[in-house]
């Protein structure tokens, strides 16, 4: 047991109401110092001051108290590592104000944990209290969300040959720190497809999303059903996400092949049917004698 901890005591018995209470662990004699609270979060790439509160949970006063922090983690740089708290009476607390200064790497995963060793001594330098605390690093966690087409010229919800439209890419930040200056890039692999503004920079807040708008155009000579492979990338420094998608110019080519076991329906499915948008193929036994030919 460590002084300063809180234990839960449960007393039970047959056909009895369970009694539950909390007990504070105290030192039997002398002072005993613990870290009562401290700032345990920091953003990636940030230099920040850490405020630490010490509590004397012992029976006697602690004099000339000094705390020193250290870490073996290479992702943190401790700039100011020591602070004199002075005297702390039994049962009292003492706070440091911007006393400890640290800097963390700007290439850490979101919620990365950095172990921080806290050593506390009194004036005699003979008493040493040690505790391990953890600092959580907040960072972006990028992802590419939905890709939606809108505002096409004829309003049919697709990009037809010769049309312009808007492609909205949802940039997601599932992390716990804002992502500023996120570079959004989109590319398409067809000569019939062009993007007016394929590189944009946006801010995506922590646990938020931002719609990035790209203006796109299909060539007037694009064959119906032209498939465009899209590549979307979003990045900020080492934080990166990508997604592949497909966009079809005009009506996708569709071929329906009958089985010979179905009865053809109404016009135009009781005759051969072909136009510039789709092709439908039936077996001869499935075609009725229609009175309209195309």
Give the SSE order as H and E letters: EEEEEEEEEEEEEEEEEEEEEEE
Chain-averaged pLDDT: 85
| Overall radius of gyration | 34 Å
Which of globular, elongated, flat, extended, rod-shaped describes the shape?
A: elongated
Largest sheet: 5 strands, mixed
How many E-type strands?
Answer: 23
Helix percentage: under 10%
Structural class: mainly beta
Task: Provide structural commentary.
It is a single chain. This protein is mainly beta and 294 residues long. The protein is built from no helices and 23 strands. The chain has strands at residues 6-11, 19-24, 33-38, 41-43, 47-50, 52-56, 62-70, 76-80, 82-88, 93-95, 100-104, 112-121, 128-138, 142-150, 164-173, 179-188, 193-195, 199-204, 208-218, 226-236, 239-249, 273-274, 279-280. The chain is elongated.
Give the topology, please.
Blueprint: E1 6-11, E2 19-24, E3 33-38, E4 41-43, E5 47-50, E6 52-56, E7 62-70, E8 76-80, E9 82-88, E10 93-95, E11 100-104, E12 112-121, E13 128-138, E14 142-150, E15 164-173, E16 179-188, E17 193-195, E18 199-204, E19 208-218, E20 226-236, E21 239-249, E22 273-274, E23 279-280
Parallel strand pairs: 4-13
Antiparallel strand pairs: 1-2, 3-6, 5-11, 6-10, 7-9, 7-12, 8-11, 12-13, 14-15, 15-19, 16-18, 16-20, 17-19, 20-21, 22-23
């Amino acid at each position: 047991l460590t002084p300063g901890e809180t234990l839960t005591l449960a007393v039970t018995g047959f056909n009895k109401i369970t009694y539950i209470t909390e007990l504070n662990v105290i030192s039997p004699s002398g002072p005993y110092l613990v870290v009562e609270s401290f700032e345990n979060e920091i953003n990636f790439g940030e230099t920040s001051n850490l405020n630490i509160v010490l509590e004397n949970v012992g029976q006697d006063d602690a004099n000339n108290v000094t705390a020193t922090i250290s870490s073996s983690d290479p992702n943190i740089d401790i700039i100011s590592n020591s602070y004199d708290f002075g005297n702390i009476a039994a049962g009292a607390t003492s706070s440091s104000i911007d006393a400890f200064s640290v800097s963390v790497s700007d290439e850490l995963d979101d919620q990365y944990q950095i172990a921080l060793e806290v050593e506390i001594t009194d004036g005699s330098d003979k008493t040493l209290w040690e505790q391990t605390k953890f600092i959580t690093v907040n960072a972006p966690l990028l992802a590419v969300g939905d890709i939606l087409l809108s505002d096409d010229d004829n309003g049919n919800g697709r990009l037809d040959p010769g049309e312009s439209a808007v492609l909205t890419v949802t940039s997601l930040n599932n992390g716990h720190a804002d992502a500023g200056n996120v570079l959004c890039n989109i590319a398409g692999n067809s000569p019939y497809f062009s993007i007016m503004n394929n590189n944009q920079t946006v801010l995506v807040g922590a646990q938020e999303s931002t719609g990035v708008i790209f203006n796109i155009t299909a060539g007037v000579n694009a064959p119906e059903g032209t498939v465009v492979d899209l590549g979307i990338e979003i990045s900020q420094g080492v934080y990166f996400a990508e997604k592949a998608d497909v966009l079809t110019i005009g009506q996708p080519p569709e071929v329906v092949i009958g089985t010979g076991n179905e009865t053809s329906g109404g016009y135009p499915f009781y005759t051969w049917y072909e136009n510039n948008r789709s092709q439908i193929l039936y077996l001869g036994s499935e075609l009725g004698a229609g009175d309209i030919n195309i």
